Amino acid sequence: MNFDPLLVLWEDNGSLLDWNADNSSISPGTQTYADAGMYFPMLWAGDYILTLTVSGNFPTSMNLNNGFFYDGHTPEPLVTAGGAWSVWVSVGSVPEIPEPSLLLMWAAGLGTLGTLARRSRAKRF
Question: Per 3-state DSSP, what percentage of the chain is helix, strand, and coil (rounded to 5)?
Answer without folding.
Answer: 25, 30, 45
